Amino acid sequence: MRPTPFCLGVPLPSNTPVSLPLSLPGQLTIRTIAAIQEELLSALAGNGSIILDIPEDAQADLSFVQLIEAARIYAGTAGKQLSLKQPASGQVLEVLDRGGFLQDMAAEDQRFWLHERTVQ
User: Fold this and answer.
1) Were both Cys, which of 1, 24, 87, 108 would link to 115 (CB 3.0–4.6 Å)?
2) The CA-based dihedral angle spanning residues 32, 81, 97, 27, taken in that order and rounded to the nearest 10 degrees
3) Which structural domains are found in the chain, ordered by start?
């Protein structure tokens, strides 16, 4: 049995979705991506909504963006939600730019990665 979620000490109805924050490590690269994938899949399996917390100074490469894009597709088909605590910045934003993800970005992708802001 899952515990009843609370908001400011007031119990919420049992059907209220609770988002699980998931803090990611500072290394988001090919060397660590398998462990991050396992942790992300485990979190998605047990929760309907995950909020990813990416450190501002995280080192990232294309494998991280590929993992998150695959996780977004999986979450969508499984009726789950995946979001970022804050918009992509630092090296994650650079990887998105170098990989061409920021060019002609769909509105849904812009909401996910950039929280709807545009990149100059």
Assistant:
1) 87
2) -20
3) 23-114 (3.30.750.24)
Contact 50, 18 (CB under 8 A): no
Rounded (10°) CA dihedral 65, 70, 73, 79: -110
Amino acid at 21: P
Nearest to 117, CA basis, from 82, 95, 99, 93:
93
How much is the pLDDT for 120? 53
SS (H, E, C) the chain: CCCCCEECCEECCCCCCCEEEEECCCEECCCCHHHHHHHHHHHHHHCCEEEEECCCCCEECHHHHHHHHHHHHHHHHCCCEEEECCCCCHHHHHHHHHCCCCCCCCHHHHHHHHCCCCCC
Tens digits of residue pLDDT in 101-115: 999 999 999 999 999
User: Which residues in the chain show pLDDT less than 70?
Assistant: 1-17, 117-120
Structural Rg of the chain based on CA atoms: 15
